[in-house]
């Protein structure tokens, strides 16, 4: 037997479950170079489009990352899936198998970026301004 504790964090003014519903409608992309996070509506972007907007980085689905394996690059024609988190990694990261330390580091950095309000892809370029969130320790 054990003790089980559950908690639910909601943003002020939202009803429970609304955050989960919102989460499931968008794909999240975390740029591991600058720590920014963006949201894409379902069916709004393909992996190749995201990579073209981020030269020098490759898109990987977070659920496909495993210890002892190289991060698999998403196919250019792959539609971003709602509710999924994707990471933009530099090519050097794809060249070697992930260690447990690597995977934990990616998870912590992605979590920090996603705790902030991700920028929608449309809003990020509206008016010629780009708003992004930054990871701690990155300049």
From TrEMBL:
It comes from the Eukaryota. InterPro entries: PADRE_dom. This is Uncharacterized protein.
């Amino acid at each position: 037997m054990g003790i089980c504790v559950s908690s639910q964090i909601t943003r002020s003014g939202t009803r429970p479950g609304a955050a989960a519903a919102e989460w499931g409608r968008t794909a999240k992309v975390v740029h591991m170079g600058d720590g920014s996070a963006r949201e894409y509506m379902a069916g709004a972007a393909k992996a190749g489009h995201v990579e073209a907007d981020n030269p020098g980085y490759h898109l990987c689905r977070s659920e496909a990352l495993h210890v002892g394996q190289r991060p698999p690059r998403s196919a250019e024609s792959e539609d971003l899936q709602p509710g999924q988190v994707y990471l933009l990694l530099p090519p050097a990261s794809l060249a070697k198998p992930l260690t447990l330390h690597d995977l934990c580091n990616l998870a912590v950095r992605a979590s920090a970026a996603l705790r902030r309000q991700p920028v929608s892809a449309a809003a990020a370029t509206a008016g010629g301004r780009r708003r992004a969130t930054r990871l701690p320790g990155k300049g």
